[in-house]
Write a structure and sequence with these properties.
It catalyses: a 2'-deoxyadenosine in DNA + S-adenosyl-L-methionine = an N(6)-methyl-2'-deoxyadenosine in DNA + S-adenosyl-L-homocysteine + H(+). With 926 residues, the protein is of the alpha+beta class. The chain is built from 34 helices and 28 strands. 43% of the residues lie in helices and 14% in strands. The strands form 6 sheets. Strands 11-10-9-12-13-15-14-16-17 form a 9-stranded mixed beta sheet, with helices on both faces. A hairpin with a 2-residue loop joins strand 16 and strand 17 (626-630). Helix 31 packs antiparallel against helix 33. The longest helix is centred in the middle third of the chain and has 26 residues, at 440-465.
Length: 926
């Protein structure tokens, strides 16, 4: 949900709840609406629990509790004062907060709240239980439109504070967007390449000046504002041109009479760093609206010193055209997600090392260790080869400087006496951070974000020493390079022997979505091996990195779409990484949703993979909110043998029945009929009844939608149905196929009465939906009769029996699906070549096979108990009938026994590891 929508919804929420609020009648709808409309929770009913039981001397109930963020809510009516005690059923007088505290103290330790919120429909009070004696944050309903962000801790478990910094950064991004839009209107030719680059550079300069005046970098506050305020609209353009020239000129090189001509301009310091060096940028004329926006909204009414350079850099970059962002594959990253990469890659180890140093008791030894630690920090180098707005590099710089400041406090226990110059005390520099970015605007943003971060951290170090060090002129230079990372030699940016860590989130572009140039770039890196064209664009960064780190101890961690660890990409993607480059995966995050801080939020299903040539003993797999220490991590991100499953055209096991796609129409919809069309046609042409069949897509099958039909002339003489309706439909099919760009489709125009493919026969068959929700523990698989026509979105096994159903509906087979199947977003994408044909079937005894047939029939019988429920309803994990669940559990046990797996204690990972061993053995035998 973007900021504008949140503000609009918050305003509406205020209007809805002004002058109302009954504790019993309104509490739940109040919180559900707040979570859904203002805070963007899609299913708030699943997110918050009402009336949670808690055992005091009697059974009592908590008004609201949010497990995910550990929030307890004590709700009172609008007629209650949150400061006044209320008599309890026990006779005690307790304030709402004291009442909530009593509940919290009687909960299991793991359920005790991090936050307590008391509310009376007029005001929210937020108590941080990490600091139980501190004053609560007070948020009045009437102010929610501007302060709604203070309630984001309700839904964001990473929110250790109330995130004012984040909100300021997002609001700053909105201002930049407005300035950008107004400036763009003033350009004579806004589509001209020079104009495009100029407006990007102009926005960067304006933002730097706005930040510099608020942060005191220019020497005093409001300098930029006060200088521009002297000029009317017609003079603003020239005023900026003069200012930029002065900022790029050393004081000793300026006109000696400048202070006489324009004293406010002469006060500005020299900036350096190349930010203002290009005098060729095109600056348009201003309008009254633009002048007011810059001086009032962006300067007078906004404090830029509080922005987070990590978040703001990403939001700033989002002022680019959304279509440009999509084509470039850019996605902007939250601080929480950045830490998913940098914490296990290096930051946790550095924090642990500093904590150990702090335990040193002898002062001289403590200072020596702290100085050595600071030198270590100052010699680490970080490289992001797809750095975008530089948020990975910026956040890493901020974290290193915070650690350095902790070390500085240990080195200089008497800071007021030890004060020296910043250059002598601060060792960590933005010169340790390297990046490549193809977009020139993003390069400028990344440099600016690092400069802002450097400024903010200088202020924190100054506070330690009570020092008055100047930030300007800029003395450090950023190593952010404009260029195409896939065609550049990374050694020209940073030699591999000098690099310690590579990180980032390279572009997310699917193999089928790449343009011609991107495809050529990727293939030139992958090589023209079989199926390399199926690898996503992000894979090219893995290959470049794997080659770059040869002979070094560099550790890498990339965010990637989960597709590179699923389905048909795995084998071509990872075989060379393992066999040629010998990489080792040391930690990984399994699939999660990667959200962003950009104005147009992107949400992608991602994984994080860290690799190097070093074999870490402590390997970690992160998933959901847990982590598991493992011995190895394979390309499917499992603690299992490193086996790469290769697509197959035939089943791995001999005598396994063939699976094919259902029948593909390729007819432009002209062989298909709705139920109304079917009834009208049969009424007019009764003889067509025998060739009109029920037609099922995967969705129809799962949701009991028996309202789609088709003309099915297979094994029929079409000339016996020579009527105007059939003629017209077949002529339309013929025309549709003749216009196709695919030769096989054009050839099928000669038989318009037949589907493009018709693998189905008259016998009964087993069907598997090609796409199925990941929420389901089991994919709903079932039998259909031969007179029901399966679409190509259903996979079919002709002649299948109960035993086949039992195996495919088992937890063992579903474990295989979850591991090797492709995904559509996060939903299972079943295929015969990747899943079914590669699946190792068991070799059961006759007794075991009979038992599986019996448990498979029990699954069908359990479904039959609910004739009015669809398969989608029956297999919803929240509503799955107990009879069906038990039938599946019995079937699971029977199948596990056939595999020789212990029913007790075997995890899904164990089952997959067993299947991988079987797969490896079977493929070697062939």
């Amino acid at each position: 949900m973007d900021i504008t929508t949140q503000k609009r919804n918050a305003k509406q929420f205020i209007q809805n709840w002004q002058n109302r609020g009954h504790e019993k009648q309104d509490s739940q709808s109040f919180w559900l609406q707040l979570l859904r409309d203002v805070l963007g929770v899609e299913e708030p009913e699943q997110f918050i629990k009402f009336e949670k039981k808690v055992q005091l001397s009697h059974e009592s109930f908590i008004d609201g509790y949010i497990d995910q963020t550990h929030v307890m809510i004590e709700q009172k009516g609008s007629n209650k004062d949150l400061d006044k005690p209320i008599r309890q059923s026990s006779g005690e007088l307790l304030t709402p907060f004291q009442q909530a505290q009593r509940y919290a103290n009687n909960l299991p330790y793991s359920e005790r709240p991090r936050w307590i919120v008391t509310c009376n429909f007029i005001e929210f009070r937020v108590y941080d239980m990490e600091h139980p004696n501190s004053e609560p944050v007070r948020i009045e309903l009437k102010d929610l439109e501007k302060n709604y962000y203070q309630l984001e801790f309700l839904v964001d478990k990473s929110n250790e504070h109330l995130e004012k910094e984040k909100q300021v950064s997002l609001s700053a991004g909105e201002l930049v967007g407005k300035i950008y839009d107004e400036l763009l209107k003033q350009y004579k030719d806004p589509n001209n390449e020079h104009s495009q680059k100029s407006i990007n550079q102009l926005c960067v300069r304006i933002v730097f000046c706005l930040y510099a005046e608020d942060a005191g970098i220019f020497g005093k506050r409001n300098m930029f504002h006060d200088y521009l305020e002297q000029f009317d609209v017609r003079q603003m353009r020239q005023a900026l041109i003069k200012l930029f020239k002065v900022l790029d000129t050393k004081e000793e090189d300026r006109d000696p009479y400048l202070a006489d001509d324009d004293p406010k301009l002469a006060e500005f310091p020299y900036v350096n760093g190349g930010m203002f060096s290009n005098e060729d940028i095109e600056i348009p004329s201003f309008t009254d609206e633009l002048r007011s926006l810059l001086l009032s909204k962006a300067s007078d009414e906004f404090d830029w010193s509080e922005i987070s350079p990590t978040i703001f850099g990403a939001v700033f970059e989002s002022t680019l055209n959304p279509e440009t962002r999509r084509q470039g594959g850019m996605h902007y990253t939250s601080v929480e997600n950045i830490h998913k990469v940098i914490d296990p890659l290096f930051l946790n180890d550095l924090k642990n090392e500093l904590n150990e140093i702090k335990k040193t008791r002898q002062l001289a030894t403590l200072k020596k260790k702290a100085r050595k630690f600071q030198e270590k920090l100052a010699n680490l180098t970080f490289f992001d080869p797809a750095c975008g707005s530089g948020n990975f590099l910026t956040e890493t710089y901020l974290q290193l400087r915070k650690l350095e400041n902790e070390a500085i406090k240990l080195i200089y226990p008497n800071p007021s006496l030890d004060v020296g110059q910043a250059k002598d005390i601060i060792k960590v520099s933005i010169q340790q951070f390297y990046g490549i970015e193809i977009n020139d605007f993003a390069v400028s943003v990344a440099k600016t974000a690092l400069w802002i971060a450097e400024s903010q951290m200088l202020e924190e170090t100054k506070d330690i020493f009570y020092a008055d060090w100047d930030f300007l002129p800029l003395k450090t230079y950023t190593h952010i390079h404009e260029g195409n990372a896939l065609t550049m030699d990374w050694n020209n940016v940073i030699p591999n022997y000098a690099c310690h860590y590579i990180m980032g989130n390279p572009p997310f572009i699917g193999a089928s979505m790449m343009n011609k140039e991107q495809k050529e770039e990727a293939v030139s890196i992958f090589g023209k091996r079989p199926r390399t064209r199926s690898i996503d664009y992000v894979g090219a960064w893995y290959y470049k990195a794997a080659k770059f780190i040869q002979g070094t101890e560099i550790k890498c961690a990339f965010v990637s779409t989960n597709s590179i660890t699923e389905g048909e990409q795995v084998q071509p993607m990872w075989s060379e990484l393992y066999n040629k480059y010998h990489i080792i995966i040391n930690f990984a995050y399994k699939t999660f949703i990667w959200t962003t801080e950009a104005k147009s939020k992107a949400a992608v299903h991602c994984v994080i993979i860290s690799f190097s040539l070093l074999d870490n003993r402590n390997k970690i797999i992160f998933y959901d909110d847990t982590k598991e220490c493992v011995n190895q991590i394979n390309s499917y991100l499992l603690d299992a043998p490193n086996v790469l499953v290769r697509n197959r055209s035939k089943p791995l096991n001999k005598n396994t029945l063939k699976m094919t796609k259902g029948n593909q129409p390729s007819d432009g919809g002209n062989l298909l009929l709705t139920i109304d069309e079917k009834n009208r046609v049969i009424k007019k042409y009764p003889d067509l009844k025998e060739v009109i069949k029920l037609y099922l897509t995967a969705r129809d099958y799962l949701h009991n939608n028996n309202e789609r039909f088709c003309l099915w002339f297979k094994d029929k003489d079409v000339t016996n149905y020579n009527n105007p309706f059939v003629k017209r439909r077949l002529e339309l099919v013929k025309q549709f196929r003749e216009k196709s760009s695919a030769r096989p489709t054009r050839e099928k125009a000669q038989t318009p009465y037949l589907f493009f493919s018709t693998p189905q026969t008259n016998e009964n068959y087993l069907c598997v939906p090609e796409i199925s929700s990941e929420r389901r523990r089991y994919i709903p698989i079932g039998f259909l009769t031969g007179d029901v026509i399966a679409s190509n979105k259903l996979l079919i096994v002709l002649g299948a029996k109960l035993y086949d159903l039992g195996i495919l509906e088992s937890n063992v087979h579903m474990a295989w699906v979850r591991t090797v199947a492709g995904r559509l977003k996060s939903d299972y994408q079943y295929s015969s070549s990747v899943v079914y044909n590669t699946f190792p079937w068991p070799t059961p005894t006759d007794k075991q096979k009979a038992k599986i047939e019996k448990t498979a029939q029990a699954i069908l019988d359990a479904r039959a108990l609910y004739p009015d429920s669809s398969l989608a309803d029956l297999y919803d994990p929240l509503t799955m009938p107990k009879e069906l669940l038990k039938a599946h559990q019995d079937n699971d046990r029977a199948v596990m026994e056939a595999y020789g797996l212990s029913v007790k204690g075997t995890t899904e990972s164990d089952a997959v590891a067993h299947l991988f061993k079987m797969y490896e053995k079977l493929t070697k035998e062939q």
